[in-house]
Design brief:
Layout: E1 2-3, E2 16-22, H1 29-40, E3 47-54, H2 60-67, E4 74-79, H3 85-95, E5 100-104, H4 115-121, E6 127-131, E7 139-141, H5 145-162, E8 173-177, H6 178-187, H7 195-205, E9 210-214, E10 217-218, H8 227-246
Parallel strand pairs: 2-3, 2-5, 3-4, 6-9, 7-10
Antiparallel strand pairs: 1-4, 5-8, 6-8
């Protein structure tokens, strides 16, 4: 893991850190960064953008390096090998310096402007998670029926196995008060796509108040999630969370 951006630890911390996990995102990142920059120009809060390159093989790092001239607040962190989305989000969060950490997917399936809803909710909560299921009328481009059914079944399994009350844990659009959520990210073990339920389970275990916020969302056909392969791994990850809890591997603060 190699952070870039000299002096990032000596300058005053920003109000907001935006964490983007990225694996082979050379094509999408320039547009994504431009949209985030445009949104930040309308914000009064200071911000940094942290992109975690998860061992990409398509030139993602080169694209980001070339973008740094336009984004003074852009930081690149590289994993030497592909470890998984959960590992990337955890790395980005633990490197973040902002009072608030916003996690968003590289494809911006939830438009960055929807972050206003999450940030507003942090006035009353410790974490705000974007949701496609609270108000499905906000979904602009749906997934296939098979994917939507798989998502519904997975979230049912999440509620049964972990006791989490949320109807959509997998939307890649979440905001946290960094100091409150720090311990949850430190204890997170899941490195793949199934990390969200574990992270939210840990947040609740450590007393964080979490709200589920409906957001606009559009499916991107170039998703990295494969329903059968990754779905089975995610169910296994759920069972691991339950096992870790029973074996007391998640100590209290």
């Amino acid at each position: 893991m190699s952070p870039s951006g000299e002096g990032s630890r000596t300058t005053p911390p920003p109000e907001l850190s935006i964490v983007i996990p990225a694996y082979n995102e050379a094509r999408r990142l320039p547009r994504t960064l431009a949209r985030i920059r445009a949104w930040l120009e309308g914000q009064s809060r200071s911000a940094e953008i942290i992109v975690v390159d998860d061992g990409s093989t398509d030139g993602t790092a080169a694209v980001l390096e070339s973008s740094r001239a336009e984004f003074a607040n852009l930081r690149l962190i590289a994993h030497a090998r592909n470890r998984g989305k959960g590992a990337s989000v955890r790395t980005g969060f633990l490197e973040a310096r902002g009072r608030i950490v916003l996690v968003t997917d590289a494809d911006l399936s939830a438009p960055i402007a929807e972050a206003d809803k999450l940030l507003a909710a942090l006035g009353s909560y410790d974490a705000a998670i974007g949701s496609r299921a609270v108000d499905r009328s906000l979904i602009e481009v749906h997934q296939s029926r098979a994917r939507e059914l798989a998502g519904i079944l997975f979230n049912f399994a999440v509620r049964v196995i972990t006791g989490l009350p949320f109807v959509d844990t997998q939307c890649g659009f979440k905001a946290f008060l960094r100091e409150r959520a720090q311990i949850a990210f430190e204890q997170q073990r899941t490195e793949g796509f199934g990390f969200d339920p574990e992270l939210l389970f840990l947040c609740r275990r450590h007393g964080l108040e979490i709200v589920e916020v409906p957001v606009r969302w559009a499916h991107d056909a170039d998703t990295r999630v494969r329903v059968l392969r990754d779905g089975l791994r995610m169910v296994w990850d759920l069972l691991a969370v339950r096992g870790n809890w029973l074996l007391r591997r998640y100590p209290r603060a």
